[in-house]
Amino acid sequence: MEVPFDAQMSRTKNRPLVRCALTPFHAFNYGVTLGAFGTGILCVKLNSLVAALGFGNIILYSFFYTASKRLHVVNTWIGAVVGAIPPMMGWAACTVYGCVNIYIPILVAKNVLHYIKGNLEDGAWLLGTLLYVWQFPHFNSLSWNLRKDYGRAGQVFYLLVAPCFRNLVLPVGTR
To answer: Global pTM?
Structure first.
């Protein structure tokens, strides 16, 4: 999905798919297999809430974040959610017990957010929020140095489309 764009960036041009060391077919199958097994292991060894968060994060990253990187600056907000979920998974792994009915929230999509919201403690939400907020100055300071690479690859982010705001945004992430 991103091979032609990764080939244009010095940071990503040596990835296996770009170098043709791996076919897209094999990469896709490998990713699906690891995602399925990983979600299953999270469910069996930890709990279904962690598995649901992990599976949801795979979907969010693969289909929404990746697809939006060249369309709209909202990709940064989606990416921040993707980055905030793993610490919430860690919290849920240590504190949530007895959540074993994973098929219910996954098959009935309207119940997923209620299920997650009802089973995560306030500390998990606080930790996720801290990571979410932290990612903006972190990404902005890193992306400014890579803006030419991102521009060549057609990626859209706030400081690339509105560089006039860099003096407001960059000092927060670099000092």
So the answer is: 0.77
